[in-house]
Amino acid sequence: MRSQPTAAGVLRNEDAMVGVLPSREASVRRTILALFFLSGACGLVYEVVWMRMLILVFGATSFATCTILSSFFTGLALGSFTFGRVIDRGKNPLVLYALLEAGIGIFAFLMPMLLSGVTDLYVGISRQFEIGFYPFSLIRFALSFLVLAIPATLMGGTLPVILRFFVQRQERLGWHVGQLYAVNTFGAVVGALAAGFFLILLVGVNEAAYVAGVVNLLIAGVVLVLNRRPGTLPVADGGSEARRVEPEESREGVYSTKLVRLALWAAALSGFCALAFEVLWTRALVFFLDISTHAFSTMLTAFLLGIAIGSFLIARFADTRKRLLAWLGLIQILIGVFAVLAIPILGRATPVIQRMAGASLDSTLYWKWTGMRFATSLMVMLVPTVLMGMAFPLVTKICTRHIARVGTALGNVYSANTMGGVLGSFAAGFLLIPFIGVHNAIIIVAAINVLIGAVLILSEPLMPIMKRWTAVGATGLAFGSLGTFYLTKGAVPLASYYERMETAEVLSYEEGVGATVKVFEDENGDKLLSIDGFPVAGTTLGLHDAQQSLAHLPLLLSGAPSPSVNIIGFGAGGTSWGILQYDVKEVDCVELVSGVIDAAKWFPEVNHGVLSDPRFNVSIGDGRNHALMTEKKYDIISIDATSPKMAGNGSLYTLEFYQLLKGRLLEGGLVVQWLPIHLLSDAEVRMTAGTFQRVFPHTTLWLSPLRHHGVLVGTLEPLQIDLPTLRAKLEREGVRQELGRFFVSDFLDFLSWFVMGEEALARYVEGARVNTDGHPYLEFSPAMAYFMAQQYQVRNLANLRELRENAFPLLINAGETDEEIAAVAERMQKRFQATQHSISGDVFLSMGMRERARFEYDRARRIDPDDKNWMNPLWFYGSPEG
Q1: Which of 99, 195, 636, 712 could form a disulfide with 565 if both were Cys (CB 3.0 to 4.6 A apart)?
Q2: For residue 722, which phi and psi values (nearest 5 degrees)?
Q3: Are 399 and 260 in contact (CB under 8 A)?
């Protein structure tokens, strides 16, 4: 990275501008800059790690995430405001800075213990009291603030304190603020990259925080050593610049109290717009990148990089410019203009996956993809974020009326800017996007920037009044024309690579609080439901295949006479409808995205109006949080989650989540987990199955009817299948209709889905990693399924075929006589052998080897003429004779 040399480079520039500092003092300052760079990196590691820890407790809903972020940034604002005043009282800045860094480091090690206490308190409150949504949101804010208050406050105090060490002259204020802010933000860039791509994957979540904690403690130790060395010149002791004392407001161009207050409001509104833009751009960019954890890390890195560059650039000339209010106003106007100009870029951008079509599958592919994602993010965000980075040092220089109160001034600016950012992220996510959409929201927020800029220019006392009005009039005319053009043109629905491949007509498009939910129809007349550009459900047989397996497998295997069921994820409602075809007591469905429930009306052929069934209850929330908070227990839990590679979704595939589910099962209960064999490598499939079996030792592995998906079935006792009960369930009218689409008419057809029992599965997963909350390998390892889905499907299906077993040992009551039992065993063996060949046919067909596929299907038909499994691929892959 270029950040570290930059810190030394800006210091060399400072030496050239003001004369060479004593060598010892210059060396100390360079060291402090390097340490402040590392401090910025640690800060972003903590933000990523602590956010992840708290979301596991409070849930991954948008409200929960906003609550946690608000708590964190409120602490930063409080720390800047408080310690800015503390340091102006004549404290030794290096000693105080060392104490702040040490405190942050200590909390890195205390956080797991504190989080455990907060979790117990949170669960206790939720179980003891019936609390409405908004009061509960306030409790959640209070608890997250309770955890984050001290470390976030300490983090917020580092910038004003270290600035007090560097700044002794007003003429050098802009340089030092820009320099320090840039170096710290460059460190944040490195921290965001390290946490998102390397640290969590390589060492774990808690361990990533511990690494940062060690670095913070080392920073504190080095600073204390530096403070004791001769030649270190903190303000309290005087120094080469500190000896020059300036009378208050004796300099030309000091702004009045009224204008300083205006600049503070501008800082708050600028922060509001900056974080609003971050939310808006992120919601738009997921359609062109993807929704993996690494994609979000890439976007955050690009955003921070622009701010760091802008702060570094403004530092070079902030102290040599007059009319700072006008300059600040111009920057705000340019932010608004370039933010609006990003709209046509978003409307015409090509998804990165599409741009990389045909790329060779080599070891460098993922990093080429990451680089292209980063370039796409910069294409949208670079210019506006560079301008955003310029604003903070300018506002700080305007608001510092006397060098003796520089800490107070910076604390005021930082806290105003941060609290504005909190409100901006909330407004963008919960008000602007749901009510007016991403594109229109960008124009509205940009207009706020332009309005701020106009007011600042009109308020500049050092600029002739006619020039002020001329500049503002020209700006208003230009921006008004630009904004009107895009508003009248209308917002363009965002579309991902997958949607552009399939879409014939968009039926529904809702940019909601949690995600953008779209319903579209493809050229074959099938309807699909996508979340942030990723298709998750629909009327195609392939998507219906997954939902039906998650419905019928657990209900056909369950021994409960009238089971209670918990479904995590609604999709198009196919799983819910399939479950209700049985004699169930009640079904509780938890869906994360409210827009998915609203879209149910577009899929009546899938869900058949399931929302109106009195046995069916749906709630909007996080499935894991539901398992944590509820005391209710179920006979069946069906996890209809999306890809574990999606950001935040990996928490539904960890050891701790499965342990929560085990505690929510009634005696004799079972859990089913979707296993996307087309999205995971062989090692990741084994990791997922092995993690699941750690909690449910009696796990069996099954395939979906089309054999495109895997399904894990975990039971508390060894699985036994009562054959008469199974036959009776398969005779239910609704069940026969639903499964008939997959040529399942008797127990042999159903049991051909079976892959392996618990002993064979244990051998299969031996040596595999365990996916945990602390080591979320699935979510943080490269998501290569975007390029290798077919290869994954073929390899995993071929591997599972070699490991398949006959399901006969699981049967009980297979007949009243030995002859009847032997007849069932013979029929099952014949079906098993036939299915082995039809699975081989599937593998060859998906590889394009149609002659080999036809040969295998013919062998399956000769072994068992009653087997219709060979017909399923005709629906999914196309006829082998075609």
Answers
A1: 636
A2: -80, 110
A3: yes
